[in-house]
Every structure is written in structure tokens, then in C-alpha cells.
Design goal:
The chain is mostly helical and about 300 residues long. It has 13 helices and no strands.
Length: about 300
């Protein structure tokens, strides 16, 4: 396993555990205000890290990894790209995802989100960004089949959940656009800068949009555990995991990186079984094995390619 694969596995573990953490926190703080505070905290951490990286980079050019600092100047086009990516990848994605999960079942949401790698691969191939090998398409099909066996057989679309289903579908479109749209920026700037700048840009209107809901929360009744959950969720699920995601896009491409997101529902299911006592059936175990096989297939026969820092 290469280093980037190990980091992506860590990202999967963080996002998988994060589901059980925030599920408990939503009992005391509504989803949108909780998420707005997460985004605010994570944005401040990212902006601070970017500032530190820039200061150290000026004194020791090239001494830092390209994941944290690149000396490329921000152009006018870069600014516009950062703005629209921030609005789609953070304002649009966060609002649709959290709102969708709140209005649909976990099974529905996980099944829809499981289509993200396919969406990224198809769009990437159509745009000519990546040449998708037959092994990748086979891996995507096997992985999606595994997700169906894990969560899809209990999913019921339509009815009372259709609003949530549509919002989660919209979040998938936002995330695929965000991942692929940042290709030019990732080639010029560090994942830390791109992720932090876009999160801060998208986070401002997101907080403003959810501000009225803050006045409906009984803040005096929020427990210490919920506050700890909020901080850990921001630092790990947003700061660390988002940075790893774009490091993966930079090193192995968007399509192959996105395949690791198929492991998140499996991890969430396993953590929920151990922590929350949710049942773990034989069918779900077989589905998890199929997902793992699908991800492995996408990593076979690929050619290593480096993304240049300069265009």
C-alpha cells in the first residue's frame, strides 16, 4: 500500500466514525446550526494553517511538501475559481447533504452517495480529464453492487423521503463538480490552500443562511460531549479528511480517489454495529466484501502520474 492509499483509508475511517458522532449530537443541536459551527471552526483552522505555511515557505522555499505550500501566485482566474468552487463545494454541498440526511433514511442517503465515484468517473472521462481503464469501470460496478447489498435492499425511494432523496442527489452533483472543478487549481496550488480558501468562501453564506435557526436552539441544554463532538468533527472530518481528499486528487486523480468514498458507508455501518448496537447481517458482510473488492480493482493496472505544480 502506498502512502496516499494509507491516508485515504484514514480519511475513510474518520468519515465513517463521524457519522455515529454527529448522529448523537443532532439530538441536542439541529443539523444545520451544528454543521455551520463545524464549517466556521474548520475554516478558521484552515486559514491559520495557510498563513503559517506561507510564512515558513517564504523563508525556506521548497522545504515544505506541495500538499501544504506552493509558491505560485494567485491569479485573477484563480480567484474566480475559488469563489465558484466554494459556493458549490461547501455552501451547496453542505446545505444539501445535511438537509437531505435529515429528511430521508440513512439507507437512502448512503445508497445515493455511493454513486459519487461513478458520477466523478463518468464526468471526468467525458471532459477528457482522465482515461478510465476497464478495471476501474469493473471496480465501480462491483462496489456499487456491494453498497446495494449493504444498504440498498432496505431503501425505499419516494413517498415521505423524496425531498431528502433529491437533496442528497443534489449534494452528490455538488461534490462531483467540486472535485473535478478544482483540477486546475490543484495543479497550481497546494491542497491546503484550495481546500481552506474554498471552505472559507462557501462557509460565510452558509452560516448566514442558517443563522435564523441558531435562535431556536436551547444552548444551555447542550452537553459537554456534544461540544467535544462538534470540535472533533470539525478538526478531523473537515480539516484532516478534506485535506487528504485533495491530496488524493493531486496524486492519483479524482476518479480513483472518489472510489474510496464507497468505503465510508461500510465503515459507518461497522462503527454503528459496535457502538450503537445496530444489527450486522450476513448480507451486509458480503456487501462490504464486494465494496472492498471494487476499490481494489480500481487500483490495479493504473499508471502512476504526477500532477505538475505549474500549468
Amino acid at each position: 500500500m502506498r502512502r496516499i492509499d494509507a491516508l485515504l483509508v484514514l480519511m475513510v475511517l474518520i468519515w465513517g466514525v463521524n457519522y455515529s458522532v454527529i448522529k448523537h449530537a443532532f439530538r441536542e443541536i439541529p443539523p444545520q446550526p451544528f454543521n455551520a459551527m463545524r464549517v466556521t471552526l474548520a475554516s478558521l483552522v484552515f486559514l491559520t494553517a495557510i498563513r503559517v505555511a506561507q510564512q515558513r515557505g517564504r523563508r525556506a522555499m521548497g522545504a515544505m511538501s506541495s500538499a501544504f505550500y506552493t509558491p505560485t501566485q494567485v491569479s485573477a482566474r484563480d480567484v474566480w475559481d475559488l469563489v465558484w468552487l466554494g459556493l458549490i463545494g461547501h455552501l451547496g454541498y453542505q446545505y444539501c447533504f445535511v438537509g437531505g440526511v435529515a429528511q430521508t433514511s440513512v439507507s437512502n442517503a448512503a445508497l445515493i452517495i455511493g454513486a459519487t465515484p461513478v458520477a466523478v468517473a463518468v464526468i471526468s472521462a467525458l471532459l477528457g480529464r482522465e482515461r478510465i481503464a476497464p478495471w476501474h469501470w469493473l471496480g465501480a460496478a462491483v462496489s456499487i453492487t456491494g453498497i446495494y447489498f449493504v444498504v440498498g435492499r432496505s431503501a425505499e425511494f419516494g413517498g415521505q423521503t423524496w425531498r431528502g432523496d433529491m437533496l442528497v442527489m443534489a449534494s452528490v452533483a455538488c461534490w462531483a463538480t467540486y472535485t473535478l472543478g478544482a483540477g486546475r487549481l490543484i495543479a497550481r496550488h497546494s491542497p491546503l490552500f484550495v481546500t481552506g480558501a474554498t471552505m472559507a468562501i462557501g462557509g460565510v453564506p452558509y452560516v448566514l443562511a442558517t443563522l435564523p435557526q441558531f435562535f431556536t436552539v436551547n444552548w444551555s441544554g447542550v452537553s459537554t460531549w456534544t461540544w467535544v463532538s462538534l470540535v472533533l468533527s470539525a478538526l478531523l472530518a473537515l480539516n484532516v479528511a478534506y485535506l487528504i481528499w485533495y491530496m488524493g486528487v493531486q496524486k492519483i486523480g479524482a476518479a480513483r480517489t472518489s472510489m474510496f468514498s464507497n468505503l465510508v458507508p461500510i465503515t459507518a455501518m461497522s462503527v454503528a454495529a459496535l457502538w450503537l448496537g445496530e444489527p450486522l447481517s450476513r448480507t451486509k458482510i458480503l456487501g462490504a466484501a464486494a465494496v472492498l473488492t471494487g476499490v481494489l480493482l480500481t487500483r490495479l493496472g493504473r499508471k502512476q502520474s504526477a500532477v505538475p505544480i505549474e500549468e
